[in-house]
């Protein structure tokens, strides 16, 4: 019987084989990173030709790298038309991570070269219209003053945007939070105030108790529950069902309807501060406080994080503390 043993390989030859394998792996990673960079530029330019011009490449070379990525993933990244490109679901997911990864690499290289260099990059934030004049806006403005080379893309919407599809780095949201797999941090309790126009109050009997509010029409906010919690001087809570048939999805619209005297409203205090000072609105039952709205910072979990996200969060926490 013949025993087959392991053929001994000289150490120098082993080292040569190892170096060859490492070189091949590094080469593959570099090619993949290059393809991802080209893919990100295609999305930014909305065309292969635009990406080719921006990267000083030929359109055919750009197309080759995209085909390589699609072949590796086994599914298309773009919907192609004669006018523009649209991302598939797979393309949306890849773009969110690829763009963040490239941004993180650029930031790391810049900080390694110059640790004292000013922050740079782009930060996309979605927030509600109620936050436009709030301390949160002041905190964002202060962050911009401190870091003017950071481009801020602020998207005001009272609809909860999909952070991945919208390519948002951060969302500032109010109200209850769903278990969505997103990272979350509570920032603030936004104060609210119960208001009505002087003309509306003059048409009714004087209000002394929260229970009297049950029969008065309210302007309801679409994303909030159909009742309001009032907290008394002794900490007692009273839940008031909101009568009325006007529902809005925008805080400014709530304040507008309150000014014209058709219903009660409970907007954030900062939204109607000027109206209260000018007498266009009057605080109702001032000894009772409307329960505040919790405000959260939310950002994508399980993906490469924009390094600027934590920096702007630090600025917001400092502003609100």
UniProtKB/TrEMBL annotation:
- SUPFAM superfamilies on file: Periplasmic binding protein-like II, Winged helix' DNA-binding domain
Check the record and name the CDD domains matching this protein: PBP2_CrgA_like
UniProt keywords (A-Z) are: DNA-binding, Transcription, Transcription regulation
HTH lysR-type domain location: 31-88
Q: Does the keyword Transcription apply?
A: yes
Among InterPro entries, the record links this protein to: LysR-type_TF_proteobact-type (IPR058163), LysR_HTH_N (IPR000847), LysR_subst-bd (IPR005119), WH-like_DNA-bd_sf (IPR036388), WH_DNA-bd_sf (IPR036390)
A single Gene Ontology molecular function, please? Answer: DNA-binding transcription factor activity
Which stretches are transmembrane? none
- A single GO BP: DNA-templated transcription
- Homology family: Belongs to the LysR transcriptional regulatory family.
Q: What is this protein called?
A: D-malate degradation protein R
As recorded in Swiss-Prot or TrEMBL, the protein's gene is named: dmlR_9
């Amino acid at each position: 019987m013949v025993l087959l043993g392991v053929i001994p390989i000289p150490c120098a030859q082993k080292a040569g084989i190892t170096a060859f394998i490492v070189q091949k792996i590094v080469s593959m990673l570099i090619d993949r990173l290059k393809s991802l960079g080209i893919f990100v530029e295609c999305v930014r330019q909305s065309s292969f030709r635009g990406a080719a011009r921006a990267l000083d490449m030929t359109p055919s070379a750009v197309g080759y790298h995209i085909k390589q990525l699609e072949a590796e993933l086994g599914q298309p990244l773009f919907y192609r038309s004669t006018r523009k490109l649209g991302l598939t679901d797979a393309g949306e997911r890849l773009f969110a991570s690829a763009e963040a990864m490239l941004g993180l690499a650029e930031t790391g290289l810049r900080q390694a070269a110059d640790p004292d260099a000013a922050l740079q990059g782009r930060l996309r934030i979605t927030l509600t219209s109620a936050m436009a004049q709030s301390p949160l806006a002041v905190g964002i403005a202060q962050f911009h003053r401190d870091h003017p080379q950071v481009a801020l893309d602020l998207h005001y919407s009272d609809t909860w945007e999909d952070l991945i599809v919208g390519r948002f780095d951060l969302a500032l949201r109010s109200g209850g939070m769903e278990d969505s797999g997103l990272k979350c941090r509570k920032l603030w309790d936004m104060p609210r105030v119960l208001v009505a126009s002087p003309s509306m109050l003059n048409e009714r009997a004087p209000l002394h108790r929260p229970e009297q509010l049950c029969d008065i029409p309210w302007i309801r906010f679409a994303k909030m529950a159909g009742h309001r919690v009032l907290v008394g001087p002794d900490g007692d809570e009273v839940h008031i069902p909101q009568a009325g048939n006007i529902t809005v999805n925008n805080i400014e619209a709530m304040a507008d309807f309150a000014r014209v005297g058709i219903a009660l409203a409970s907007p954030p205090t900062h939204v109607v501060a000027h109206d209260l000072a000018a007498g266009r609105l009057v605080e109702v039952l001032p000894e009772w406080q409307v329960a505040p709205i919790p405000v959260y910072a939310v950002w994508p979990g399980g993906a490469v994080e924009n390094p600027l996200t934590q920096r702007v969060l630090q600025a917001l926490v400092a502003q609100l503390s």
